Structure formats: C-alpha cells, structure tokens
C-alpha cells in the first residue's frame, strides 16, 4: 500500500519533462532550490498536472550558449552567421553540426565544412558503404553538391526546363562537381499525349526544325580491288561533296572503315608473288592469314551494311519529321486565318425611343459549370483507340539533358531512365525515352573532355539510339569505362558496339551485361579487337588495351562464343572476361574456354558462373586451367562441378597467385643471392605493422611542440629574472649607499632549478618500478579513477 501511495505521489510516467542546459551556475541554483523527494510526496502535491521542477540533466545537451547557437543555425542557416560564433571555433563547429541537410543548394554551396557535407551525403545517398569512409578518404563536398543539384533536376517536370536558372546555378557549383548520378527523371503527364492520340483540337505545337535536325552522312560503298584510280577519285569526291559541315549541331556521321581492299594494287601483287615463291609451310601460313582476313572482311561488310541500314532509317525518320512539321505549320496557318469580313447592312436610322425597364438589356449570369456537356462520341470507339495507343518511345520526351555540358570537370556520369518514384502507379511510359533525348544528351557529352566513366543502365536502348550516342562517345579522348548494362540491347547493336573499339583511344572496360547480344555483336567486337591488335603490331596505335569485357547474362550461342574467343586469343586485349550465365552449350563452352586458357597469355581473371557443365567437360576445363600459370581468379560457382574439381581449381589459382607474388619463381636470371635477399626483406604482417606503428610514433614525437609553462612557473621565472637584473645593475652601490639585499625564498629557487632540470631532461617518462615500498604505501590510499580496471585492460589490449 505504501508503495502504491509513493507511486501516486510521483509524476505520471507518460507526462512530458523539461530539459535544462549543463550550465554550472544554473545547476547550482537548481540543486539549491529544487524540491526534495519528501516534498513531492506530500498529500497537497498529489494530482498535479504540471511538474516544472522535474528536469532531465542530459550530458550532451550543452550549455545555454550552445543552445543559442543551435537555434540561430536552424533559423538563419548559413546566410548570416553571428560574429561571436564565427570567431569561436567551438561554437562554429556546433553551428555547422546544427545546419539542416535539406537546405537549398544556393544557400549552402559555399560551405567548406566537410562534416556538414558528409552528413548530407550519408542522409541522401543510397550507397551505405560510404559510412565506412573517413573525412579525408572521399570528396564529400563535391558529392553532396552533386546530389543536391540532381535532386533539382529530378524534380523538374518534363514539359518545362528552366535553362537559364539551371545554367546560373551550375556556374556556381561546376568547379566542385566531379560525379553525377541521375536515376529518376520526371516523365510527361498522361494529358500531354492527347495530341498524339488525336483527341485534341487545340492549336498544334510547331517546334524549330533546324535545332533538332540530324545530319546523316552518305552511305558507305563496298570497296573493290578492281576499281581504277579514276573511279576511286570520283567516289571520294562524291563522299566529300555529300558530307555537310554543320556548326553547333548534333552530327551523326559514320566514317568508312579502312579495309585491305582499299590498299594499292601493287601491294596485293607483291603479296601474291611472295606466296607463289614460298615453301609449303609458308603457303599454309599465308592461307591461314588469308582465311582470317576473309573473316574480318566479311565482318566489316556486315557492319558496313548495318550502318547503311541505320543511315537509311535515319533519313526516313528525318523525312517523316519534316513532313509532320510542314503539316503542323500548314494547320496552324489555317487556324490563324481570320474569316472574311462581310459588309454590314446599312439600316435606316430609327427614332430613339424611351428606354423602359422591360426594354433594357440585362447581361446573363456567369456560368457556374453545372450544365453537363453531353459527349455524343461513340465511347467504344474512343476507348478502343485509346487502348491501341501504346505510348511509343518517340513520344516519351524528357527534359533537355544537354545541361551536362555546364559541368566541364565531370569525371563520372551515370544515367538511368527509371522514371519517377512510381510505387503502385506503374506505367511503361515512365521507362521509355525518345531519340531526341539521346540527341540532346550527345550534344552535352561532346563538351566533356575530362569524362572517364559513362554509364547508361536500366534503359530501353535500340540500335538507332546507340548509334547516335556512340558517335559522340567515340571522340572523347579521356573516356575509359562504358557501361550499357540492363539496356535490353538486341543483336543488331553489335556493329555499333564494334565501332567503339575501332578508332580513337581504346577503352579500359566495356560492360555489356544483361542484354540480348549474340553472333553479330561477338563478331563485331572480336573483329575490332583483332584489327586494333594488328594496327598496334604495325605501329599505328598506342599502348592502351581493353582490360575488362563483360558479356554475362547474354543470349550468346555456341558460334558467338567460339567467334569471340578465336578473335581475342593471342591479342594483348581482355585481361578480365565475364561470360557468366550465357546460353551456349556445355561442350562449346568447355572447348572455347579451354582454348582461351591455353592461348591467351594476358588473361588474369575469368568469371563463368551459372553455366551447367558435367564431369567430363569440367575435367577438360580443369586440365586447361592447370596449363595456365597467369590466371589469379577463376569463378566457376553454379557450374555443377564436383567438389574435387572445384578444389583443384582453387589450388591452381592459389599456385598462380603465389607465383605472381614471388617473381623469382621461373625466372632464370635470378641468382641464389638475389633469392636470399628477397627472403630477408619478407616480414610477418604483424611485425611489419608494429614497425610501422613505432615509426609513426617516433615521427609524431619529433614534431611534438615543447612543454608549455604554467602561470605559476612563469611568475617564478619573472621574479628570478628581476632579481638577476637588480643584481647586475645597482644604482645605490654606485652612489655609495649600502642597501639590504632582497633575498629570494629558497623554495622558489629550488622549484625553478627543478623545473629547468625537468625541461632539460626532455619529456616526462613514468617508471612504476622506481618507487620503493614506503612511497607505495604513502600513495596507495589515495582515490583513483573508478574504471581503472577497464582502463588498464584497454591499454593492455592496445599493446
């Protein structure tokens, strides 16, 4: 019963409490005047509703000054910072820690505090691994500014793009932005498609045809060694006259690929003469080379035909757009024409009559939209027409993506047409984009000279859009990585993908995972790499090589995989290959991968997961892997291999890794003395870590500032210095007057001498074994820290 009465006397559990700052003066006042527990349990204090004296003392709440700084930071932001806050580093730290992460970009782009931008990135980024990075390990300010700018871009409606405002904002932040990741662009509303459905009678929209025109080059003609020099000159003149020279326009130009047929006839005759005069072995080698050249020529003919087909399709598209534009102009002209004015009939002037109440004209009341207009259309036909409209990609426009040209310091650009955050309101029109969007994007990309990584993922690409985009990407000199993953690209995009690897600078990585590529793409990519290898051997190309080629989860057949492997085998390209989950048969996979492992020295990593193999094909693959001593990563999970075969593959990979770490193995130039010196330099990781820690600590001690004198020591030294100066110059002694010398206390002199001795001895070092038993008994009863056990335990663990 007493317990219940005590509980009744206390405040209810669900009642709100108050907090006070940890100001020492306020806490002293509160401790003096606060009511005691006995007072709060009095009968007169029961059934209270307000408990103003029940405070919470939170250790992280801060002082009253800190609370004021936080309040100012939340109300004023970064525009106006008080002078006392700006001059005090601690208060300035509290100010930046209290700023809201959702501030507009114009109000916070000039903030240089790294901790604030780290909070912004961690709050808005989807990459949770960034929380493991420190302040000095990442560009937090550039990433935070990029995220805030992308938020503005993704919030803009597709029908309206404020170019001047966005250009002005981009000029303020361009020097800080290095990366940009755009995923959820706004799509057109469903009402915007009414004019395409034919249900709108409003005035048609007429756009400028000159700004969006595509300039298509002439078709490539099939070259032939039988052509004369005059015919070749005429063809070259026709090509030069047909190609225009536009300015400030998106140019879609397909260059001709040089082939062996365009070489002079004298070189062919010389080659034939050498082949005839050679021996049988030389003839066989020449036949093999000619067979390979024929394959390359055939691949080039196929690529040339596909490019010509794309040109023809571009011409038809341009003609259709021109015709539609002329029709809209004609309709708009007709709608704007005023009807012919009919002359008014002259009437006799009548005598003015007196206006009465009933003869006055009264204006009708304004319509209140209560009358319903009867729709006399056939609803079934209207619904049928609406269902037939499939929202084609050419009608699904977005904002003008050429704004990326404002960020000339951009290094990495990632774009995904995922539409707005739909939730349950899914519609396929959100995921589609038009060719005009790609044209505007290409116009902006051609200004980015520092771009190194370009990613266009999770988008519905076709060969026409890919041609428009690759013609610009091919001319970017600094570009190293291109990613077209999850883009639903069909096999007819292979010729364009091969053109990315033909001219200009070579890429380092080409990621094409999760598409529908097959024979044409494999042939085009392999032929381009083979041609670059031949040009590099003859001294026509640089030393950059393709390091990674990703073709995982593509519908690659047996012939496609075999063609790709035979093209890249023996070249300096493709150090990492990913062919996981392809649809080729297990026998073809085992044969082609085995051939690659035996005949491709640059290969270092191979991923072929989720390809079903049996024991016999797996054994052939393990034998081929055993003969390779360069592969350091081999992933064959999900290939239905036995545990013994997987174990053997792991052992082989470890062997190759050990040989890569110890370069003297297999090197005949290394002597026994060199090997001994190498072993002496090898240390255990723990020992090396300890040595590095000691070296770092020694370096820290060297640059550590000297010990700072306390105020008492400074006063003592000043007294001693004054006494020394008085002793050096005594004016009373010069006048013949004897005065009593002021004696300095002995303890002051001893303290000064001991202090100078401490300074001379260097940093203080505590030696616990130097105390005797009496000194230990004297100080053992003094109170120490309450958590001394955990303190010494943590110190032992750090050692």
TrEMBL record:
Residues 190-250, 320-352 are annotated as: Disordered. Signal peptide: none annotated. InterPro entries: LRR_dom_sf. Residues 202-212, 227-240 have a biased composition (Acidic residues). This is Uncharacterized protein. The gene is LOC4813982.
């Amino acid at each position: 019963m007493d317990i219940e009465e005590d509980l009744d006397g206390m405040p209810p559990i669900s009642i709100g409490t108050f907090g006070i700052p940890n100001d020492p003066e306020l806490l002293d006042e509160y401790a003096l005047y606060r009511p005691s527990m006995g007072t709060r349990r009095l009968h007169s204090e029961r059934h209270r509703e307000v408990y103003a004296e029940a405070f919470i003392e939170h250790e992280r709440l801060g002082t009253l000054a800190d609370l004021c700084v936080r309040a100012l930071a939340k109300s004023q932001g970064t525009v106006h910072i008080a002078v006392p806050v700006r001059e005090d580093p601690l208060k300035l730290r509290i100010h930046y820690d209290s700023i809201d992460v959702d501030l507009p970009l114009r109000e916070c782009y000039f903030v240089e505090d790294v901790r604030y931008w780290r909070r912004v990135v961690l709050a808005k980024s989807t990459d949770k691994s960034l929380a493991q990075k420190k302040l000095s390990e990442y560009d937090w300010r550039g990433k935070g500014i990029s995220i805030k700018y992308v938020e503005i871009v993704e919030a803009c409606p597709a029908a309206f793009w404020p170019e001047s405002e966005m250009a002005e904002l981009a000029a303020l932040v361009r020097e800080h932005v290095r990366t940009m990741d755009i995923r959820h662009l706004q799509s057109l509303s469903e009402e915007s498609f009414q004019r395409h459905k034919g249900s709108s009678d409003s005035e048609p929209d007429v756009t400028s045809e000159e700004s969006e025109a595509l300039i298509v080059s002439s078709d490539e003609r099939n070259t032939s060694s039988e052509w004369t020099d005059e015919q070749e000159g005429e063809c070259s003149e026709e090509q030069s006259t047909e190609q225009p020279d536009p300015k400030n326009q998106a140019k879609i130009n397909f260059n001709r690929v040089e082939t062996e047929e365009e070489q002079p006839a004298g070189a062919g005759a010389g080659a034939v003469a050498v082949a005839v005069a050679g021996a049988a072995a030389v003839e066989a080698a020449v036949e093999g080379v000619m067979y390979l050249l024929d394959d390359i020529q055939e691949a080039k003919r196929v690529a040339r035909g596909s490019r010509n087909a794309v040109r023809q399709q571009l011409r038809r598209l341009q003609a259709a757009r021109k015709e539609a534009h002329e029709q809209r102009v004609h309709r708009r002209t007709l709608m704007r024409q005023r009807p012919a004015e009919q002359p008014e009939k002259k009437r006799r002037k009548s005598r003015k009559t007196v206006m009465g109440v009933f003869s006055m004209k009264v204006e009708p009341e304004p319509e209140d939209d209560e009358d319903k207009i009867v729709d006399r259309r056939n609803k079934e036909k209207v619904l049928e027409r609406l269902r037939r409209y499939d929202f084609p990609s050419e009608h699904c426009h977005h904002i003008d993506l050429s704004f990326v040209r404002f960020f000339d310091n951009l290094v990495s650009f990632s774009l995904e047409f995922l539409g707005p955050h739909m939730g349950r309101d899914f519609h396929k029109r959100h995921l589609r984009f038009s060719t005009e969007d790609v044209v505007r994007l290409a116009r902006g990309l051609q200004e980015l000279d520092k771009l190194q990584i370009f990613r266009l993922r999770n988008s519905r690409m076709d060969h026409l859009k890919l041609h428009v985009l690759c013609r610009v990407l091919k001319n970017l000199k600094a570009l190293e990585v291109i990613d077209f993953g999850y883009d639903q690209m069909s096999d007819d995009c292979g010729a364009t993908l091969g053109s990315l690897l033909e001219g200009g600078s070579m890429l380092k990585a080409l990621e094409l995972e999760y598409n529908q590529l097959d024979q044409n793409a494999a042939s085009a990519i392999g032929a381009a790499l083979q041609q670059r290898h031949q040009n590099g051997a003859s001294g026509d190309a640089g030393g950059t090589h393709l390091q990674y080629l990703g073709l995982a989860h593509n519908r690659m057949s047996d012939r496609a995989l075999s063609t790709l492997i035979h093209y890249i085998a023996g070249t300096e390209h493709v150090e990492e290959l990913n062919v996981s989950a392809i649809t080729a048969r297990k026998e073809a996979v085992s044969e082609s991968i085995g051939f690659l492992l035996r005949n491709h020295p640059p290969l270092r990593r191979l991923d072929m997961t989720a390809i079903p193999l049996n024991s016999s094909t797996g054994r052939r693959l393990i034998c081929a892997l055993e003969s390779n001593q360069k592969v350091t990563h081999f992933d064959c999970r999900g290939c239905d291999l036995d545990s013994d075969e997987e174990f053997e593959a792991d052992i082989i990979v470890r062997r190759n890794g050990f040989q890569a770490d110890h370069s003297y193995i297999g090197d005949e130039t290394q002597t026994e003395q060199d090997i001994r010196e190498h072993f002496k330099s090898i240390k255990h990781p723990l020992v090396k870590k300890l040595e590095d820690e000691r070296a770092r600590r020694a370096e820290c001690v060297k640059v550590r500032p000297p010990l700072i004198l306390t105020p008492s020591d400074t006063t003592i030294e000043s007294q001693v210095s004054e006494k020394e100066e008085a002793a050096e110059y005594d004016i009373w002694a010069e006048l013949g007057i004897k005065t009593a010398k002021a004696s300095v206390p002995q303890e002051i002199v001893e303290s000064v001498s001991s202090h100078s001795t401490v300074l001379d001895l260097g940093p203080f070092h505590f030696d616990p074994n130097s105390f005797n038993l009496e000194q230990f008994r004297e100080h053992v009863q003094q109170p120490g820290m309450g958590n001394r056990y955990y303190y010494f335990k943590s110190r032992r663990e750090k050692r």
